[in-house]
Amino acid sequence: MSVQTDSDKRKQISVRGIVAVENVTEVKKAFNRHLHYTLVKDRNVATPRDYYFALAHTVRDHLVSRWIRTQQYYYEKDPKRVYYLSLEYYMGRSLQNTMINLGIQGNVDEALYQLGLDIEELEELEEDAGLGNGGLGRLAACFLDSMATLGLAAYGYGIRYEYGIFTQKIENGEQQEEPDDWLRYGNPWEKARPEFMLPVNFYGRVVDTPQGKKWIDTQVVFAMPYDNPIPGYNNNVVNTLRLWSAKSPIDFNLRFFNSGDYIQAVLDRNVAENISRVLYPNDNFFEGKELRLRQEYFMCAATLQDIIRRYKASKFGSREAVRTTFDSLPDKVAIQLNDTHPALAIPELLRILLDIEKLPYEKAWDLVVKCCAYTNHTVLPEALERWPCSMLENCLPRHMQLIYHINFLHLQEVQKRWPGDADRMRRMSLIEEEGEKRVNMANLCVVGSHAVNGVAAIHSEILKATVFRDFFEMWPDKFQNKTNGITPRRWLLLCNPALSDLICDKIGDEWTVHLEMLQKLKRWAKDPAFQRSVMKVKQENKLRLAGLIERDTGVRINPASMFDVQVKRIHEYKRQILNILHVITLYNRIKRDPSAVITPRTVMIGGKAAPGYFIAKQIIALACAVGNTVNNDPDVGDKLKLIYLENYRVTLAERIMPAADLSEQISTAGTEASGTGNMKFMLNGALTIGTMDGANVEMAEEAGEHNMFIFGMRVDDVEALKQRGYNAYEYYERNPELRQCVEQIRSGFFSPGEPGRFSHVADVLLHHDRFMHLADFDAYIEAQEKVSQVYQDQAKWAEMVIENIASSGKFSSDRTIAEYARQIWGVEPSWEKLPAPHDT
Length: 840
Ligand SMILES: *Cc1c(COP(=O)(O)O)cnc(C)c1O
Known about the structure:
Structural class: alpha/beta
CATH topology of the largest domain: Rossmann fold
Number of strands: 25
CATH architecture of the largest domain: 3-Layer(aba) Sandwich
Strand content: 5-15%
CATH superfamily of the largest domain: Glycogen Phosphorylase B
Number of helices: 34
Largest sheet: 10 strands, mixed
Bound molecules: pyridoxal-5'-phosphate
Number of domains: 3
CATH class of the largest domain: Alpha Beta
Radius of gyration: 27 Å
């Protein structure tokens, strides 16, 4: 029996689960039971946080049988397992996502209403799982959702950082970092598995024995697994994300016990446990710290032991036995490396097969290459991992030996193919000899993998033509493209229920698992009624975001203005400065003619800067300073605002994407490997102003260039300009508006109390700008003028919005994962449901 109530601000739609009285009753009972037995509270003393935890446990109960049964099913059926290895998983919150994927949101909403509780208020009490920096970590999270939804026997492996990405506070117009103590109140979504704890070795030395090499005198750290459920969408699959936490061995620092300093020995246990203490907050930047190297190896070593254990123990054929040969390893195991961060999985797997399982070298190496595949995420040289040989030698002496050996055999092959080509040998070597000797981890990954992929078509082409050119000549068949995607469950169904409903009204709900279906919306692109409905939803979402911003910052924004948004990590290559230059240009134009009619805009910029990235922090300060000037100028009024969005993270992205009109994707062509923020905006009906970079190129291909605002240099133009020699002054001198902007920044117009405050930023723009901001300034301003003009014509704008939504199907991570599955992992996606358990 179905009940219809007005209890819920979130409309009931079929994809979010039918409301049935008996199920609502069950949810209420379970909630009360958890409040009593799990939280040990009654309703007189329970806090909102107690209610959140009672609710989380209630929802979690619905996962348990599905989780156990899915894992049992994998054991029985023994399909090829997919292992996704990543140092980052930017998961955000789990509560609403779990309810949606299990189809119980309707029942739970109704139950909480009947209990007199505001579910949205409780949802706000969940901490984000911020175990990632930006796009790379969020991609891993979207992939987990899609792998479960496509029924793959997949496992995510990573580190359970005690502190995730820092919390950003903007104080006096500057970024301050606060530690993200996300586990403070406990994590109801994880299950510790101390019984599966595994040892990981560091340091020590390698000795020759008659039985082969032995790595001895090591220091041991234990890896304690914490399992996190990953529910598929509406298919009763629950996969596992296993995150490792470092634990000291009981006898750690035994010598102190012997020397009698018991207290010191106990205190020193922290040293080992520091391995999983904190996420490194760098995005697209390599910081060669030993602790980070230890994190990377810790994750790989624990994960590979787990993979080998599961391979050996798997039931195969109809017999229950232990696998004794490794011949079928590549038929049962696919290992995907998310960038080079888990590259040590390659020498570690080789070490296990060689030193522990005693396979001959040729056989062991062949298995490694067949199992492993590598995804490249960037061509920025400062992001490429190059570990000093001295550090590896000290920390992981056996692995350093193996890398030398891999390199020796690899260079023999190069020599055979290109005799006497010493320069090519140098370029293709795993070891860089100039300056301090280092291991090039990307080269190690290419040599040790059967497949190498970029993350958007243009990026994959750039890889073959530049960083991996020599490798592409040697192994053309290794190189592939897998254009990134996002999960439409979190990035539409969850974050934008009103738009989801509107789409369901028109084309049904199949799009939730077959996003290409959105194409059907094209029929109504010019339909005035549908245009009005779409724009009404956008307006409601804008009002909601405006309310949030006013609550948090006190700044009032004009909800009739265009919401012009750039949210992503702060990085010079992403060119937030270009956006700021546009705001300053608009400001100067308003000041010159305060009566001129312009399209009102609220420009929002958000994102974290790596704490050690000086210029990135200056960019944040500049945005705040310009905002301060613009927002408080009475001549400007409602026409222009610049807001800095504090602490951009997954949960804030879920509020922003549905409310954006304009998406800023303005990196220098050739620098943004793919971008995924661009896709979230598109799916939620924002139009893109962007360069022909990363996945923007494919978005233009799908929607047509006439439905985007493409501007600026293409990759070839950027290359040509670099060849010719980029001279910022050429552009500076030619354009008086640009000159005025740069002068205002340089001379302290936005920082009157401290005139030299931003001189460094102006200096970068004029003298050492790797990303050629000024070369694209004219084209950018011109494209922005076009944006303003089209926005005046709301019917035209709405038509373009619908065309964009309808064209965004390609950017589902389901499509991406289906391609990885078939073309790299050798497994077949399935949209079949597992049988539902009878207990829920
Ligand atoms: C999607 C996402 C990103 C990636 O954004 P890009 O614009 O592709 O760099 C970064 N951070 C968060 C919180 C995200 O959700």
